[in-house]
Amino acid sequence: MESPVVRVGVIGGGFVGAALVQLLCDPTRSEALVDAATATVELVGVAVRDVAKPRPGIGLGLLTTDVDALIASDLDVLVEVAGGIEPARSYVESALKRGISVVTANKALMAESGTQLAQLAHEHGADLFYEAAVGGAIPILRALRSSLAGERITRVMGIVNGTTNYILTKMTTEGSDYGEALREAQALGYAEADPSADVEAFDAAAKVQILSTLAFGTRLGGEEIAREGITGVRIVDVDFAARMGYVIKLVGVAERVGETGISRRVHPAMIPVGHPLASVNGAMNAVFVEGVKSGPLMWLGQGAGGESTATAVLGDVLDAARNRISGRHDVPFTGDRSLHYVPASELSSPFYLSVDVLDRPGVLAEVASVFGRHDVSIQSMDQSGFGDEARLAFLTHEALSADVEATVKELIALESVESVGACIRVIDEGVT
Amino acid sequence: MESPVVRVGVIGGGFVGAALVQLLCDPTRSEALVDAATATVELVGVAVRDVAKPRPGIGLGLLTTDVDALIASDLDVLVEVAGGIEPARSYVESALKRGISVVTANKALMAESGTQLAQLAHEHGADLFYEAAVGGAIPILRALRSSLAGERITRVMGIVNGTTNYILTKMTTEGSDYGEALREAQALGYAEADPSADVEAFDAAAKVQILSTLAFGTRLGGEEIAREGITGVRIVDVDFAARMGYVIKLVGVAERVGETGISRRVHPAMIPVGHPLASVNGAMNAVFVEGVKSGPLMWLGQGAGGESTATAVLGDVLDAARNRISGRHDVPFTGDRSLHYVPASELSSPFYLSVDVLDRPGVLAEVASVFGRHDVSIQSMDQSGFGDEARLAFLTHEALSADVEATVKELIALESVESVGACIRVIDEGVT
Question: Could you say which of A46, A68, B46, B261 would form a disulfide bridge with B257 (CB–CB 3.0 to 4.6 Å)?
Fold first, then answer.
């Protein structure tokens, strides 16, 4: 039987776009692609800014600069791997309004406009898939959407930024300080010349938006994610964490708080060495999901890279093709189940604090009394001296963030306290 | 809008069946279930052997002993969580022939008859889903079927039996010997009174059948899986592995060998401590997948337990319901892409061998010369003496299994060799 044809257009000829074209055009894969798509996937064209630029792996005949003509050429599926908010959003909207299914790897666009775009897709009988927007090759979004659709998820916690994980891994395993590790990441191409999107956790926050939407039905493009990057993590904190049986990771978290609350945040956290996330090193990504009945689940894989990301895009293309052939589309997540956002200040957890003080009698008692006044109980303390100063490292019992913040504020005001070097949340639940 | 109804019947009222019924009847989940199923999921009945037996969580009005009547009651989806080959297979066939989609957790049935049942489902326009048959709550099968459908997978390697992983973890972390660890697993309910299905790796072999089918299109119920259990793993081997930077795990492997070869096997293996599978401990399961473009991916979660397994069954039920509503079914894997099975004896890898010898001059040279005669090159050696004997532990360079087997055979025949205690394959590739 002759298989039906699904026409695919691609916007973007960068690493991901080129890798996708190679996957679609690889003759050794064509039989498997037809099986998986239940159709022949025909690549119609690849829209790029500059046709003259050499793009190994993309046939010249496929290249075009005319995105509108590509969208208008009777497409079934549009792949958007160009990135950025505009003009990507306009192209995606234009395609969806024509009933063309869209596959995108664009986390910034989805975090900002995902809910509206999903609604638009639904109205026009099209699919909007974005597996590659979180965790590169890791098929976590489809799992949340489909396999875990009936489960009550309590927490999604991920290492979703490879650059910061590379830097923190370097600091942990080689004792590099933050600046050295960052420069090495830049030299290797893991970090941009301006690394702020990664190290200030904007990238991870967009991914938390997307994960939170699929796990809890929160709206994309809603309230901001509480965000703290890794620029304040010092080698002394990494060393202290190791001595206490922890590693410091930048985690993105979306979790239930009580019956109707949701906390969404990105911050460095101390993770027990036995936790599955603790051994996720280098540029690897991982997402750890806890459900009421499923128990803990974790997905691990390469979070970046053109080829691995392209496999996630391809999975979406095949899914969209199957839907196309059977004349259906996936229903988007249902937004806003009357959940409210709980600010980070209202959360409780153990904390690690490092305080530099003048090394003189009575200082520890003075510092400890500040903790006590704010109901922050100390689990353990570690002191190291250097010259006239001493560094006190505290691990608290579970304490309210607002109380810890108040403690820090009062500590800084003390004449005997030089500085509060770090205040890092501790993730303390084990996994059986 | 009134949502359509999908009628679901369940065969089996054990742990998984009861947990599934609770999930389907939980009022706090009903809204989410309707969203995910695009329909109201109506539980029609639960077929059990003995209606009188107390089954907490299953309403008495749902129970029946008449499976045929349940199947005949205009079902959309039949869930089979009773286990065993017969009568489960007859019930599944009967349902599929009526065009009823089937969701099963029955790994033995799928390993034996999966290809025929999938074909039967396809002929009658029904789905056959079995996510819970491998890795409990871990949604690995849907990922292989869908997200990775366009990827060329090179290897699937999993810790897919919780009982043996519990025993090996006990031996590794607490120095228990095999017998102690097994008895403890039995006392905790992780191992059966007759543990052979687990410790002799029959259970893991069935799961390798299923994984291999989805990853490579091999036929279910085809040739046997090469199978070696954990009964021969001794605490001395575990200790030696630790000293060399490895842990011993029972792994199920399905991998490409060359262009058209497939190796499928279950055996204890030495895994480098830095490998993601090495830190999968206790009763946890994990599946590690390597693809040409995706790079390494890993799924981790609870491999057993009624509630966690029920979440996987529920995911399948919702998927089958969505398909039902949109009038389509998933196309089953395409079997037999002219692959041939490569026997384990034709594979190469490094090996660990432990040899007990009489402690007298010249023995090491004699033993080493046997290795050399069979082209097995030694990477490192570790000797420990006890009384008149000595134990030699060898780590070889990559060697052909058949050559290693021949080496073992000749070693055993030596007058100075008391016994060859262990011969364990080493998985030596790292993950970046």
Answer: B261
The answer to whether A14 touches A305, Cβ cutoff 8 Å, is: no
Instruction: Give CA–CA dist B238/B173, Å, rounded.
Output: 10
Q: Which CATH number, 3.40.50.150, 3.90.950.10, 3.40.50.300, 3.30.360.10, labels domain A147-302?
A: 3.30.360.10
3-state secondary structure of B339: coil
Pairing of strands A261-272, A340-341: parallel
> At residue B70, what is the residue type?
L
Catalytic annotation present for A107: no
Which B-chain residues 308-347 have CB contacts (< 8 A) with chain A?
308, 310-312, 314-315, 317-319, 326-328, 331, 334, 337
Q: Which of B107, B207, B249, B293 is catalytic?
A: B207
DSSP B147: I
Do B293 and A301 count as a contact with CB atoms less than 8 A apart? no
User: What pTM value is reported for the model?
Assistant: 0.92
Cis peptide before A332 (omega within 30 of 0): no
Its CATH architecture, for the domain A5-136+306-325, is: 3-Layer(aba) Sandwich (3.40)
Amino acid code (one letter) for A100: I
The ipTM value here is 0.90
Per-residue model confidence (pLDDT) at position B220: 63
Q: Quote the tokens at residue A1.
A: 């039987």
Q: Are A248 and A269 contacting, i.e. CB atoms less than 8 angstroms apart?
A: yes
Bridge partners for A32 per DSSP = none
Task: Give the pLDDT band (50/70/90) at residue B258.
Answer: confident
Convert the pLDDT of each residue in A393-429 to its tens digit.
Answer: 999 999 999 999 999 999 999 999 999 989 999 997 6
Fold of B151-301: Dihydrodipicolinate Reductase; domain 2 (3.30.360)
Measured in angstroms, the CA of A310 and the nearest CA of chain B are apart by 8
The confidence score (pLDDT) of residue B3 equals 84
List the CATH code of the domain at B344-426. 3.30.70.260
Mean pLDDT, rounded, for A377-385: 89
B409 touches chain A (CB under 8 A): no
Question: A405-415 pLDDT, tens per residue?
Answer: 999 999 999 99
Tell me if residue B381 falls in helix, strand or coil: strand
**Residue B320 to residue B102: CA distance in whole angstroms:** 8
Q: For residues B120 and B182, what is the distance between their CA atoms, to the nearest angstrom?
A: 41
Number of H helices, E strands in chain A: 14, 19
